[in-house]
Amino acid sequence: MSIPTLFTYTVPKDFADKTIEAFLLEQGYTKNLLSALKRVHFFEAESEHFGIEKNGQWAFTVDHLSEGDCLSVYLPTEEENSAPPYDFPLDIVYEDRDILLLNKPAGLPCHPSPGHFEKTLAGAVVFYQMQNTSASSFVCHFIHRLDLDTSGLILLAKNRLAASILNKDMKEGRIQRSYLAFCQGNPEFSLGSVPGFRRVHESKKEEFDYSFAISAPIARVEEEKMLRTVDFQKGQEALSYFNVLNYFPNNNYSLLQLQLATGRTHQIRVHLSYLSCPLLGDSLYGNEESIVSQNIGLSRQALHSYSISFTHPIGKEKMFFKRELPPDLSLLLQ
């Protein structure tokens, strides 16, 4: 039997005479979560708690509340693993009961997929949770994704309530992430010659404090499963901001810091390739010069998830983390 996750609340005056369902929706529970609570099977043993209790007594979601009521929600744990367990060490940046923030290495896929079924980050998280708790299974909820060969910070929720709140925050732009990247050439040289690429004027307030913006819709390339391209007729809106932190003229590449206003597949890689400044080491969107990567032995695209800021889904405190470049990309700074 799996162990439920307990959430407790004291009902404020604003929710007096309102239903438990109305209160829980305000706390971030989705209709699906409430449906799961309604389907819970209850056990006769007094030591077993499942579903919803009001002041220590089992309750329905349609029951009404009074100010000061103590509401306990025992959220059922999902019964199936999200991936085959994989014994792989996790680089844990932050962890509590509700969230897990990892520093992902390059070369490790997030989810099982054809050709990468057993050795995944999701599997490593499942293995870690099963080793360190009494859970017989675990489902990890990725709040965002990183490509196979992208390194850096990635945020996961450890229960369905945290996932529900963080997914909504991500969709509504309240989770902000920045990336560090090395690209061929200098994107500034393309100003004025590429549609959708512009300088951000200091007098104009924009979403992020960056010097350059690329607004170029992205679409899937027909008959290609992975490949994306800029397509102003059929593409979905895609907006990226960036600064050029350093340009290395001797080797003709630049270090960029980027932030995304949208989250399209391969967005950074596609936008930089569109500017004729593909990521170093990018075999999918690069060219011969970018793939050789200045003969330093780089075996993947030079992209790193550098920082993340968000509000904790349960505690509501503001959180900010960053991780510097890993060794293989730090070599490019020399």
Quick overview of this protein structure:
The chain has 334 residues and is α+β, with helices and mostly antiparallel strands. Helix content is 17%, strand content 27%. It has seven helices and 17 strands.
Please tell me the overall pLDDT.
88
Share of residues in strands? 25-35%
The secondary-structure element order is: EHHEEEEEHEEHEEEEEEEHHEEH
Characterize the biggest β-sheet.
Answer: 11 strands, mixed
Given helix and strand content, the structural type is alpha+beta
Terminal CA distance: 54 Å
Ranges with pLDDT <50 over ≥5 residues?
43-47
Multimeric state: single chain
Tell the overall outline: elongated
Helix content: 10-25%
Number of helices: 7
Q: Work out the number of β strands.
A: 17
**Integer-rounded radius of gyration:** 23 Å
What would you note in describing this structure?
The chain has about 325 residues and is of the alpha+beta class. It has 7 helices and 17 strands. The strands form 3 sheets. Strands 5, 6, 7, 8, 9, 10, 11, 14, 15, 16 and 17 form an 11-stranded mixed beta sheet that branches. Strand 5 (about 90-95) and strand 6 form a beta hairpin. The model is unreliable at about 45 (pLDDT under 50).
